[in-house]
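COMPLEX REQUEST
Ligand: 6-O-phosphono-alpha-D-glucopyranose
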Amino acid sequence: MCGIVGYIGEKNAVDVILDGLHRLEYRGYDSAGVSVLRNGALDSVRSVGKLAALEAKLEANSLSGSVGIGHTRWATHGVPSEANAHPQHDDPHAIAVVHNGIIENYLELGAELREKGFVFRSETDTETLAHLIRLYFEGDLFAAVKRALQDVRGAYAIGVVCSDDPEVLVAARSGSPLVVGLGEGESFIASDATAILNYTREVLYLEDGQVCEIRRDGYTVHDLRGAPQRPEVQTLDWDQSQAEKGGYPHFMLKEIHEQPEVVRNTIGGRISEDRSEVVWEDGLLDASLLETCERIMIVACGTAWHAGLVGKRLIESLAKVPVEIDIASEFRYRELLIPPNTIVIPITQSGETADTLQALRVAKDRGAAILSLVNAVGSTIARESDAVIYLRAGLEIGVASTKAYTAMLAALVLLAVDLGRRRGALSEEDANALLTELQQVPAKIQEILDKQGTILQCAADDRFRDAHSALFLGRGYNLPTALEGALKLKEISYIHAEAYGAGEMKHGAIALVTDKLPVIFVAPRSGTHEKIISNIQEVRARSGIILAIATEGDTGIAQHCDEVIYIPDCSEPLSPILAAVPLQLLAYYISVNRGCDVDQPRNLAKSVTVE
Ligand code: G6P
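STATUS: Structure written out below.
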């Protein structure tokens, strides 16, 4: 997640770009930069840290020009540093590129370009694009970008300027968002429309595979092969508070909708082309430890703990390593038996949760190797770990975590497959099939987001909306999904909610079932599907109100339930990613319908830095 802005017109591009970048800082803020064309030359200023640091540098630099691009970064490839900040440049320093996304084949392309004599100055995947565009440049930037992108695999939204073709700004998109703004004698690009709403409300959203040449007085859109495209121009009708939320009424809803892009980012570049390898850009722990470790311990809090519960199942079934999982606040206060050869995995969105940090420190003192899953780059937990898998979910603002959760699950699938292969526990065929399916998950999440009818209907139904209590039930991989669904509902709608293993319900929770109790079964296709159908019958016999999350095509389940929300088919280890999404939406819309403060629910904090 990074933010990009571009401008071509009569104003000073630097002012317009900085204004836009401020509105996109939610997408990342570990470094920033801007490039403008002035008197036939390309001038750039880049800086580590938030935008304020860039602005301070610009004051001393007085950059100006009427064509330019800017970027605020959330590091994915390469540490936050000036060399890795965007814009990235080609060799003669005539082309500048800003990029949001991941170029998956950047190592391959980089090797070919180095052989041709291109010199690289950063650790970024983006620099590859700058050199590639230079390779194909013959005086026409639009043509060179179209040609270069034919060689590229991965996700991107890019903005490009070039001092050898100074009257255009070129933009392209595949998998990462990009909007083009159309003004009077000026045009803009941005990662989202909030960045340019001060200047225009006429926009067009580029589709995947489209490249746009933007001039002061208009634009041309082609596909990568040069076929003309006609995206529809839209007029936005947003007020300012909506604008900060990218047109959504709440950050939580925006973040739920970002999940296809987020999962694409989390796995982007980490699966080799033939899927024979999981590639960790910064390496993992020592290979022999990964191959021989006898125990893994996961520590986390809240939603991250639920992700850890899925992680335990993934690692145990795919890599056959025993996994213990602890709530971080319990971990350090129990008799800890940490044998040699143990890997401890803290999972955390913020990287600052005090309980998780203390658990990490205790485990480190006892000699465990620390491999953390962290969203916030450079956070304390990331710094104190031996190795880090970054989640690349971008800044999460809604207190109820959504996109960080699905990113955690996607990263855990990658980790479990990698461990399974290294340890010979997972066949090549199964590993390949799972990774293939994982690559289809973003599109499947999008399908769920596109079909919210039943979710909206349930959230407006007084049996759910006005309930005093709700029960969430699941089994196996989706017991954690039930826990996460219950947590989402109680966090933001204040409806008391409990989650249970569906098979355990008969040992206690069944006493709560009446015709007033909504019971939400997380029941996608699984090895225990018949058992869960029996559990549904048990609730039905006691008149509970039954809502099931089930797999598309499972029409049989409908006869046992009051309502069914269908999710696309997928294999069991991936089903928690998909099943979480309707539960997030259900909690969200129930909360809205109850008039609750979705983004800042009472008593909660986004990051809890006290024990
Ligand atoms: C707080 C938040 C939760 C989050 C938990 C752990 O309680 O409200 O949404 O899951 O902290 O946070 P972390 O940043 O460590 O993932």
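REMARKS: The chain has a mean pLDDT of 92. The chain is about 35% helix and 25% strand.
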